[in-house]
Amino acid sequence: MPLRIAFFGLPLAALLLAKDGHSIELCAVCRKDALGLRRARRVFGDRVIVKPRVTDAALLDRVARLQPDLVVSWFWTTRLPMRLVESARLGGIGVHPSLLPRHRGPDPTTWAILAGDAITGVSVHRIAAEYDTGAILEQEELVIDPRWTGWDLARALDRPSLRALRRTCMRLSRGETIAEIPQDEALVTHAPALGDDEHAIRWTWPTDRVLRHVRALAPAPGAFTEIAGALVTVLEAREAAHFPGALAPGEGYAEGGFAVIRTGDGAVILVRGEIDGAPADASALARLFLAPAPLLG
Hints:
Layout (H helix, E strand, L loop, with lengths): L3 E6 L1 H9 L3 E7 L7 H8 L3 E3 L6 H10 L3 E5 L7 H4 L6 E5 L11 H7 L4 E8 L9 E8 L6 H24 L33 H11 L5 E5 L2 E10 L12 E4 L2 E5 L4 E9 L2 E4 H6 L10
Parallel strand pairs: 1-2, 1-4, 2-3, 4-5
Antiparallel strand pairs: 5-6, 6-7, 8-9, 9-12, 10-11, 11-12, 12-13
Helix pairs in contact: 1-2, 5-7
């Protein structure tokens, strides 16, 4: 039997669940510019609401009156009150873009790359009182391409996330018993949003860590450094095969049209970035080292 769903998040998932035959009784959208919002308004009409406050009594009462079978969260950005979740006959489920309990928190794709993970994935989990702590209903793994940026990884996880959500909803609609596996607290890691200062490149880090930092934060907000008084956002870099051993970490030079900067155990070549917010190719970045006193801070 199709499910009656109260949906919270990005409308693409709600549209796909409706395509599967489920009834979207409420479609709460988390962004005014969300992809698919216009189509969702055509399909769901006045069942679409944009950026509601989920703690408002009127919304809580509306969901309670709907008596949905299931609350679904797909990239909803605030905590859903348990009163709302418990209004549904089957409770609530969400999908997190990591293999929980690894990388709990708002920025799991960034942290997967920062940590050097070879494999990540998605987890369908019960919505619990605390973020990302509910029992696991399903997971799907994804091998991380070592060339991917944080943005690339986030986009690559969209399809498995939607597949896993749709499979789980279909199984629940058929009345299947799904094993609910509690998360192992001993294996928990956290993925908090980084502060602005944490976007800075520390040139004493090993080369591999510098390159992961650049990839994890590209294209936005971007890993940054300072060269010759200019704020440089590094969007792409690669390991340098050779460099003067006399350079200290953070010192650099231009060679063959590229900027080369010493790290804690090697050096990196700057391939692409921004200089004070303006796009910069490798040659523009190299020219910074022709200015007076180009050493980094």
